[in-house]
Specification:
This protein has two domains: 5-177, NAD(P)-binding Rossmann-like Domain (Rossmann fold); 180-268, 6-phosphogluconate dehydrogenase C-terminal like domain (6-phosphogluconate dehydrogenase C-terminal fold). The chain is built from 13 helices and nine strands. It has helices at residues 15-27, 40-49, 59-62, 78-85, 103-109, 156-168, 179-205, 213-216, 220-228, 233-242, 244-267, 270-289, 305-310; strands at 5-11, 30-36, 54-55, 68-71, 94-97, 118-120, 122-124, 145-148, 172-175. It has a six-stranded parallel sheet with strand order 3-2-1-4-5-6, with helices on one face. It has a three-stranded mixed sheet with strand order 7-8-9, with helices on one face. Strand 2, helix 2 and strand 3 form a beta-alpha-beta unit. Helix 7 (179-205) packs across helix 9 (220-228) and helix 7 packs across helix 11. It starts with a strand and ends with a helix. The protein binds NADP nicotinamide-adenine-dinucleotide phosphate (NAP). NADP nicotinamide-adenine-dinucleotide phosphate binds at residues 12-17, 37-39, 42, 72-75, 77, 81, 98-100, 123-124, 127, 131-132, 232, 235.
Length: 311
């Protein structure tokens, strides 16, 4: 494919950025990829792995002359980065992000975008519990949704080009306004992570994890929780701090449902439990039918880099 962008600047060189870079290189989507991350260690790793052509000492240098800038840092770091790069962005350049929360990122980034630069917020619904420059792989986005939430007045051609880039990396693109994704992601991603963190925390409180009983006899349910609860603490702290309203809304509903199930267990109401579990089983089938998972017993794990390389 001919390159869609001359120079792509990646700000942040972790799981999502390195996966984008691998995919863009595999598909020839950029003539040059320039990278910046906070630590010299990550910058060196990116160079060594070869998914960037060069790295810079600052974010401002990285965006110099870029026609696409991708912000792939934790949500809480977006504002400072936007303020730093704003004055150095080339006219006509597209800036996008991959942050897991949209409204907070728009509020943090948009005020720093100069006239004639298009900020098109985005979010790939793809990831693993791994982080850092060594965790990325080109197929991460294949078959996954990539949400774009263009702001009113954005050049349609800039949105179209960004969309083509996401699709060329294997993603399915949906365009929507910024509000709903935060609520949808609170249901499908953010609250489940919080529940996983809580469940693993409860097991740890029982002090049996370190005594190895829970680990040794861990059943699939608990193992899946531990995988999710191993996700990056900085990223997830920022998600809950910035998607507060939507997460609290869903957590409130979750708590009500939990109390109803608790009551059914206490009263021995098997019919309630059976009807509830039957309904949720149908949702799982719907996800598989929509092609967003497989029915394999190890679902999810096949997404990690190690697994991909093994197969
Ligand atoms: P990651 O692997 O932890 O990488 C984060 C990168 O950001 C690192 O390269 C880090 O640099 C850099 N960084 C952090 N603070 C910075 C700062 N102040 N200035 C410059 N660079 C900074 O994280 P990730 O999983 O790729 O997540 C990146 C973004 O994607 C987040 O906004 C997250 O919400 C979103 N996202 C993640 C997932 C997922 O499943 N992981 C899925 C969808 C979207 P160092 O390496 O030097 O620390």
């Amino acid at each position: 494919m001919t390159a869609l962008y001359n120079r792509v600047a990646l700000i942040g060189l972790g799981l999502i950025a390195s996966s984008m870079a691998h995919a863009m290189k595999a598909e020839g989507l950029a003539d040059e990829i320039v990278g910046f991350a906070k630590s010299a260690e990550s910058r060196a790793a990116a160079l060594e792995l070869g998914f960037v052509d060069r790295v810079t000492e600052t974010a401002a240098e990285a965006v110099h002359g870029a026609d696409l800038v991708m912000l792939a840092v934790p949500v809480g770091a977006m504002e400072a980065i936007a303020a730093e790069i704003g004055p150095h962005l080339a006219p006509g350049c597209t800036v996008s992000d991959v942050g897991s929360v949209k409204q907070a990122v728009i509020a943090a980034v948009q005020p720093h975008m100069p006239e004639g630069v298009w900020f098109i917020p985005g979010h790939p619904i793809a990831g693993t519990e791994h982080s850092g420059p060594r965790s990325g792989f080109a197929s991460l986005f294949r078959g996954r949704w990539w949400l774009l939430t263009p702001i009113a007045g954005t050049d349609p051609e800039a949105t179209h080009r960004l969309r083509r880039r996401c699709e060329a990396m294997g993603a399915k693109v949906a365009e929507m306004v910024a509000g709903p994704p935060d609520l949808v992601l609170a249901v499908t991603s953010h609250t489940p992570h919080l529940i996983a963190y809580t469940m693993v925390g409860v097991a740890d409180d029982l002090r049996r994890v370190t005594d190895s009983e829970v680990i040794q006899y861990s059943a699939a349910g608990f193992r899946d929780f531990t995988r999710i609860a191993a996700s990056d603490p900085t990223m997830w702290r920022d998600v809950f701090l910035t998607n507060r309203e939507a997460t609290l809304d869903i957590l409130g509903r979750f708590t009500e449902e939990l109390f109803a199930l608790q009551r059914a267990i206490r009263l021995g109401d098997g019919a309630h439990l059976h009807a509830y579990f039957t309904r949720t089983r149908a949702i799982r089938r719907g996800i598989i039918e929509a092609g967003q998972d497989t029915s394999a017993p190890d679902f999810g794990r096949g997404q990690t880099k190690d697994e991909v390389q093994e197969t």
